[in-house]
Amino acid sequence: MTLARDVFLVDLPLEDARERFFGALGEPPLESESVGLLDALDRVTARPVVARLSSPHFHACAMDGIAVASSATRGAREGAPVVLRLGSEAKEVDTGDPLPADCDAVIMIEEVEERGDGTVAIRAPVPPGQHVRGIGEDVVASEVVVGARRRLRPADLAAIASTGVCEVEVVRRPRVAILTTGDELVDPSVVEPPRGAIIDSNGVLLAALVMQYGGIAQRYPRVADDEALLLSALDRALAECDVVVVNAGSSAGSEDFTARVFAQRGEVLVHGVAIRPGHPVVLGIARRGGRKIPLLGIPGYPVSAAICADLFLRPVVERFARLDPPAEEELEVVLARKIFSSLGEDEYVRAVAARIDDRLVAFPLQRGAATIAALSRANCLITIPRFQEGIHAGTAVRARALRSRAAIERALLAVGSHDVAIDLLAAAVAAKNIEIVSANVGSIAGLVALAGRWTHIAGTHVLDPQSGTYNDAAIRRYGPREDVALIHFAQREQGLIVARGNPLGLRSLRDVAERSARFVNRQKDAGTRILLDVLLTREGIAADALVGYDRIEFTHVGVAALVADGSVDCALGIRAAASVLGCDFVPIAREPYELALLARDLEDPRIAAIIAALHSKELRDEVERLGGYDCSHAGEVRIVKAERN
Amino acid sequence: MTLARDVFLVDLPLEDARERFFGALGEPPLESESVGLLDALDRVTARPVVARLSSPHFHACAMDGIAVASSATRGAREGAPVVLRLGSEAKEVDTGDPLPADCDAVIMIEEVEERGDGTVAIRAPVPPGQHVRGIGEDVVASEVVVGARRRLRPADLAAIASTGVCEVEVVRRPRVAILTTGDELVDPSVVEPPRGAIIDSNGVLLAALVMQYGGIAQRYPRVADDEALLLSALDRALAECDVVVVNAGSSAGSEDFTARVFAQRGEVLVHGVAIRPGHPVVLGIARRGGRKIPLLGIPGYPVSAAICADLFLRPVVERFARLDPPAEEELEVVLARKIFSSLGEDEYVRAVAARIDDRLVAFPLQRGAATIAALSRANCLITIPRFQEGIHAGTAVRARALRSRAAIERALLAVGSHDVAIDLLAAAVAAKNIEIVSANVGSIAGLVALAGRWTHIAGTHVLDPQSGTYNDAAIRRYGPREDVALIHFAQREQGLIVARGNPLGLRSLRDVAERSARFVNRQKDAGTRILLDVLLTREGIAADALVGYDRIEFTHVGVAALVADGSVDCALGIRAAASVLGCDFVPIAREPYELALLARDLEDPRIAAIIAALHSKELRDEVERLGGYDCSHAGEVRIVKAERN
Questions:
Q1: Nearest CB to B164: which of A143, A163, A199?
Q2: Are residues B376 and A145, on separate chains, in Cβ contact within 8 Å?
Q3: Within a domain: B427
Q4: Is A291 in the same domain as A365?
Q5: Is the pTM value of this prediction over 0.80?
């Protein structure tokens, strides 16, 4: 590669890009196929469905009772009933029976007096047609049962069946070619992918999105970074599919061939859209035998791919399939933290939202375009329009729900210090349909969020240097001005996470400083960082004596991963993080990990379920198996009283 | 059969029935199965999905540029740049490349000055970790990627794939046995079902509903009305399925075996619920090897079956599958007509709704429990609680959307006189994503609805006896007090619909009266009935000289069906209705069929599309092929000016 590159990427505003692309695409031709009724569920009718038979196809009795000729009941009244002979003048019928010959009405069983001598008495005249379902009452043969362009629901299918029709002409689903490119891509099933190999998760992402949109995903073998190979793969896709998606290579680097091959087979309409993530999109159209085949070059970062697909691929599939866009649940959420954004780009921010009191609170998550897991964890998406530089905390904004409203409404938000055991707790209460959504911000930021009613729960472990005790002082200083409940989760070991075999023989922080071991720290206000500072002060070690004191990671497992990889020699963290990454561990301290919440929230049944789970042997055993946890007091609750002043 | 029957049906209020049944059912055991990623779309995780690999699984460059040791940039500033040798001290990298050994930061290409001598100048120090995606930045191996009880979206599947996992443990879908019973049932594919045979549309209905709810539908061969046969079918279903549905035989008649066989294999908890339609429901539970198998006896009328399934079967499937109920779109609709209802039953009324000005107007449809086509045509469902005797016209009520909100919002309501050609018009404009929903109430009621702004369009053909002209007088009398536009649809023939071969040799209404031919009439205020009365007056024939003048049907095809079936000898109606039913036709009059609407609505682009369609040769030809239509003036618009007073 070379530092010089073809820069022909011009970021268009989203609306302009849409207009250019969809304007050129127009309305794809309507193509249909005939399918059986159950296969037609959720498909769209290509033309009206016409009844083959009338429904009912005979005059049917609509009540249990007797069928009569209405003329025979003329003049009947209370004092002068008409008496009819059963079997000849009055015929016993059940609902659904054909109306007997010479009868034109049915009298309900409740209104018939059986006289015991084979006759019945009728005390009121009946009009012709009473309680009779005439031929075609519901549908007449040759009438339209279900109109064109209807998405077929079960009742539609039943209505069609009731008229003797077993096949429906529905709109053909578009076949979407998914071409993934890149020398470095490997399948998720590869046991040990080599360093530098990128696991192809976009193939799954795009195929699943196409299915969700209502198309048929056709995946092709991965293509290496070679223009000629990509061109021949594109030709095959153009011959076999209605829509072509190429992922990735949509940018303007030396190995980004997408725009070039599109230009060789069709017209490139858009290269670059002012959105973040997702800006290096290529949109074009190829023509094959009078048909327009949309070409979409989707960027490689997974979050970019998901967002671009939603903006451009979904409407394409919907146009071919004649589907309405699904109803999107719009939420009004209040931002728990300020979001920055750059002018000139529409920015899509993933967030977790939960209801706290009368508002939906949203915590923004990691914003890297590569963090597909953060997109998976998100339950809503906030758009910052391109003329805004950001949004202040406390602002109410519109967000698009990424999960069902019910799931968002029942979510419990846990914001604060990260502990892997939280995942086990979440799994335990998930069985009770309680969902814990979390954002990792560190202990103190969690307590501040609790004070502002921005979270239900704050996971916390903050050492008070003066008293040597945990959490109470921090709650008084940063937490809510009302009674706080602390639910004990576990006593856990903090210590040095070191490479397997502890090659530098590190036994203490002093060793770390003296041997200039490469260290990685946690972010400010993280409980573990506060512990580090207290320990350094106690030992009389200056912060800058640690190489890497300023290098920051945000989670226990994050620092352990750096140790495991050899990027650093050590970090302070919990034993469980060391053990999941295969690192060694030198214990230095024990600390309680507690869940802080407003005392009044102890009434919330979801909190009660959490406490119950913490008392259960299953969860305790599972957490202790992580290593370094003592759960013998899990679920104990103590109250930190608000200071009255 | 006998008139006496076992009456042990007791209608419980809906909430009591639910509590009894779902309380006894409890939470079904969680069972899971392992499926590939794309098969897991929309499934629910049975347990947390744990990362096999970290993502990324190596330190990766997050920008195109150069990788450096951050320590080498210390002290760099604008006036004193640090110069690094390319290839050794500074390595060119692309996004996604592994971070080269001895490097811990990446500098963006835009911030690097190439000096042309194989070196680059750096003008600011960089911190360690800059533009580096550390191992596990997104997910760390052994961490939870996706929690338990999550409905899997494409982003979740991609997040799972990105951690090297290719299979997911998801909640098993419940298998629902669908047993349809009844001697009279025949398959929809039967070419000519015998009189009395009922086309089994409920099998399709229930199977499609189970699929929609998230279960697996297992259909069994139809069972005859025989207790022993039903019992053995039930035993097979109990052995093979998680849930058993029997349809029908859920009432208390002599051939209604459902409750009896349920009682022999389990416990019947509910027999009869105070809902309409749908009250004869049987709900029970069987036990097989420590498992509870819910038993549902669903009534046979299709609309009853659909409503019962929604109330009882859907929650059962959702409990097994651990699915949230789908978000239901709630609408506020204003009732266009009064609905009556009986005290003591929750009643479900099908309706068509459309937006007119600032409100959603809803027209109730046919209420027979057998009219599945009316349920199919409905786009919303109104519930009348059991303590109400009805709802007045003009009342705003909550309704459940049966189609997407978008489809309801774009619907055009056509209420008034029935004409089969309307279906062809609807199909023509459906291609432009315009949906016409209609309710047939007759010409005058349509004009009254137009005056009250209860409909967009009123199909009309009303003869003024004084002037002998159509529609203008009726619009002045019943229509809106503002300018009305009349869009000409067709000139059509009205006449006598008679049996094939015209066996009674009827040539005129006088023949009908003199030969005492059995006649069927249209409802009051229908344009055809007004025409009849005018013709009778002209000919000097008394109304009661017609046998059947008081017998009423609501549509042209409805009367033709009675003629075709031999129930009556003749009726007045349009030629097209006669021809679709294979009847003969004796022309008597020609009349314009016109679409009335507010003149100001001519600006509505949907109306413009209708006018354009009426001008098209395709639609005109199609309508004229029905027989008896002359479309040469279709699409012409005239205005009936409001009378100023």
A1: A199
A2: yes
A3: no
A4: no
A5: yes
